[in-house]
Each structure stands twice: as C-alpha cells, then as structure tokens.
Amino acid sequence: MRTYGQYCAVAKALDVIGDRWTLLIVRELIVQGPCRYTDIAQGLPGIASNLLSERLRHLEEAGIVERQAAPAPVATTLYRLTGAGEELGPVLRALGHWGVRYMFDPTGDEAFRSAWLSFPITEYLEDRRPLDPPVTIEVDTGERPVTIEVGDGVVTHRPGPADEPDLVLRGDPPIVMAALTGMMAVGDAVRAGLETSGDTALLTRVRPEP
Description:
10 helices; Nonspecific Lipid-transfer Protein, Chain A; five-stranded mixed sheet; 2 domains; two-stranded antiparallel sheet
C-alpha cells in the first residue's frame, strides 16, 4: 500500500481511501446498500474489472468493506460497508455538497446513474410544509426513474417510478437537478429542455430557501 509517510490523521485517511475510484466504490455501497460485484461495476462506468477487484480487496483489508453471503435463491456474494465504512457517509455527503458547484458546467459526455441523485436529494431537499398532504415527485433522467416522497416533515427517495406522481420531472440530469434544487427557475429549465407533468408549484415545498 502506498503511503504519504506522515503522522497526520488526514494523511492516514488518504493512505486508505485516497486512491482513484476508492471513494466512488464507497459511494455505490452507500446508495445501493449491500450489492453484488456486478452491481458495483454497473455503477462505476469506466473502471477496469481488475482495478475494481484490487480496490475492493484493499478496502476489505482496511476493514471498510466486508463480504456476506446472500440467502437463497440469490446465493451469491454481496459486498457491504462495515461500521468504519458507514462512517464515511458524512464525508461523501460533505464532498457532494462542496462539489455541486461544479455540476452546472457538464462536458456533455459524462456518465450518469439515477442512484447518484441520492446525494443532492439528501443534502438539499426538505419538507417545508409538513402540515400539507403528502406528495410524490418522480424524477426521470433517461435511466431508471427515482421517486421522491414528501410528507410529515420528511423527504425520502427510492429507485423506481411512482404509481401516481403529483409531479414528474423529465430531462437531462443537469437541467433536472437545477430545477429540483432551485438552482434554476422552472420556466428557465423548461426552456432549456425540462419536461414536466403535474403541479410544478410543489417544488417550492422541497427546494432550499433562496
């Protein structure tokens, strides 16, 4: 294992998680939960199989990831975060919060997975009108839809479409995320390509305050 050779907690942490792809593997295990090797690979477009195997082995040796046997009928090996691995959750959320400023100038050829919406949803959205009836917002960025459920002061999300959404947002990831988080007015987002169905006024319930 490469090391910075410094007696510093930051350097020690980077000795373990500072290699390329390592924190993104942790990201996948946070947003997907325990999952198969192929599920992790699917969430990391561009990583070579041998490199993924190497990074997972390193994370296991460091006590951040562990294997578990999935019960029948799946009967396969799952990777999951240990307690130490789960403690990286706030680190990833802080990085996501800091890095969102760079997301509104995409190159146009970047991969995207709808599960990655977990971070902006968790960090930026909240139920600002908890006494109002629950609402459901479906977000479709061209991959698997994500359903956002709002009610009783809580915002949750899950993969998959909503049965009867109160609002549907459909479009390219940067436009959808900008509209959802309030970085762009709905009208501007629509002119930029966002498609909506339902009551867009519901966005004011979950968006951050200006």
